[in-house]
Amino acid sequence: MRIDPKYFNRFIAICAAITVVVIIYSTFRYFQRQVTDFNNNVSEIQPDTLSFRSFSNTDSLYLNNLPDQPLVIHFWSTWSDKSIGVGDFLRTYADDGNQLIVIAAAVRDGDEQVRDYVNGQSGKFHFVEGTDLFQSVKTPGLPAQIFIDRRKQIFDTHVGNDTTEIRTKLDRLIAGE
């Protein structure tokens, strides 16, 4: 079959548009599957058994040794501006008098980079090495958070830097819903 030359450009434009739609749809579906897998993997962990190598203290951090307060595990990295921004949001949220423990789990960074960053920070974050947990729950990207309630049970998760949605989840977590 031959295409009349006067319709060739339209044909190519239609093919390109269809290709773009397919790529966007496939990318969205792939990301959604990753988030679903992440949520399923997180639901299988026992938070009270988690421990992390600490950058803030010389000892390891054990979740079962923390007070019975809501907490969030915030996966971040020094090279991710979005995760740094969410970390700043979490610092402000926790400093506003909310009884929230923030575990800042560094991912795929060298110890020296993380220590340099930690030394310049204020606030009550627990800075820990989080790459192992990040990989074991197959976190689809940075930033990401795991919300844990007062009873040390998984409450919710979040992937991305939408601080409005994070605030909504934190408010529900603090309220004990």
UniProtKB/TrEMBL annotation:
Keywords: Membrane, Transmembrane, Transmembrane helix. The keyword Membrane applies. InterPro entries: Thioredoxin-like_sf. It comes from Rhodohalobacter sulfatireducens. The chain crosses the membrane at residues 7-28. This is Thioredoxin domain-containing protein.
